[in-house]
Amino acid sequence: MSLEILTFSFMHRALISGVAIAILCSVVGLFLVLRRYSLFGDAIAHSSFGGIALGLLAGVYPLWTAYAVSIASALIITKIKDKYNISGDASIAVLLSSGIAVGLVIIGLSGGFTIDIFSFLFGSILLVSVDDTILVLALTGAILIVILLLYRQLLYSTFNEEQAKVSGIPVEKINYLIVFMAGITVVTSIQLVGVLLISALFVIPNVTAIMYGKGFKQTAIISMSFSVFSVIVGILVSYIFDITPAGTIVLIAIGLLAGTMGIKSAGLLSKN
Predict the structure, then answer these.
(1) Whole-angstrom distance, CA of residue 158 vs CA of residue 122
(2) In the prediction, which pLDDT does 2 show?
(3) Is 202 domain-assigned?
(4) Residues 94, 84: Cα–Cα separation, whole Å
(5) CB-based contacts of 203, cutoff 8 Å, min separation 6
(6) What is the CATH number of the domain that holds 64?
(7) What global pTM score does this model have?
(8) How far is it, in rounded angstroms, from Cα 29 to Cα 39?
(9) Residue 271: pLDDT above 60?
(10) Is residue 83 in a domain?
């Protein structure tokens, strides 16, 4: 592989943004997976589709409207779930289907699918601008700082919600915080893998890491390592062979999962 591609400025932006997004998705996604909310990221992504369509129709930068719609939808559906005691998978299904429905209606009103819509559906990491890269780094840093500051509360409420309530941890507020961070993470990550494949970055590296049977911190590090590896290799391979980065990144992540499953089946991984 020629190292010439590493000298291109667009490749620098793609790799920097991709690594930041990979780390962010792994950390936030781990909390979702452990809470059995694996598809929540997918549901938020589909609701962001409606926000993107709204932005394109209104002539506003689509990611801004996607942030607003995704976060609002996630918080509202979480409130409805808690108030009416709706199961997690049912609430996710409602959020997912409503987001797609709204997006399709707005796209129909705006004259149908365009190149802009497809770039958000499938990602366009090689086209990220300097401003986009700065935004990704700023949001990644902000969310990681929040997680570090509230690490104990987040961890406690994830593994034992009832005991966390007894201990005085504001579990409901923590839940809303996780939903809020997930909304920001999803929309930020759309540039990398698009709306249709976003849940893969949330779920696959974390499922792979969990199979190693380590503690939370070690699992998070393993997940981030797999995610970063998938993104870097995926971006480089996609450029060399002129194929979509999103699909390549996800396939590499799936390959790592399959390899881990094979190693575990062979008894080479500890079950503890």
Answers:
(1) 31
(2) 58
(3) yes
(4) 14
(5) 29, 33, 38, 39, 41
(6) 1.10.3470.10
(7) 0.90
(8) 10
(9) no
(10) yes
Residue 271 forms part of a structural domain = no
Is the model's pLDDT at 254 over the cut of 90? Answer: yes
Long-range contacts of 170-175 (CB under 8 A, 24+ apart): 172/82, 174/150, 175/78
The 10s digit of each residue's pLDDT in 8-40 is: 898 999 999 999 999 999 999 999 999 888 888
Q: Would you tell me the crossing angle of helices 115-122 and 171-210 to the nearest 10 degrees?
A: 80
Tokens at residue 37, please?
């909310």
Q: Residue 195: is its pLDDT beyond 70? A: yes
Q: Which residues contact 229 (CB under 8 A, 6 or more apart)?
A: 252, 256
21's tokens: 């997004």
Token pair recorded at residue 153: 């509360």
Q: Does a structural domain hold residue 201?
A: yes
Residues belonging to the chain: 272
d(CA 259, CA 40): 26
Residue 260: name the closest of 237, 236, 229, 226 by CA.
Answer: 226
Query: What's the rounded Cα separation, in Å, for the pair 6 and 226?
Result: 21
Tokens for 191? 């540039």
What are the C-alpha distances in Å from 88 to residues 67, 82, 84, 235? 22, 9, 11, 34
Q: Which amino acid is at 127?
A: L
Show the domain range for 189: 3-265
For tokens 């010439």, name the residue: 4
* Distance, CA of 153 to CA of 177 (rounded, Å): 11
Total domain count for the chain?
1
- Tens-digit pLDDT profile for residues 43-95: 888 888 888 888 888 888 888 999 999 999 888 888 887 777 777 677 778 87
**What would the two tokens of residue 26 be?**
């792994």
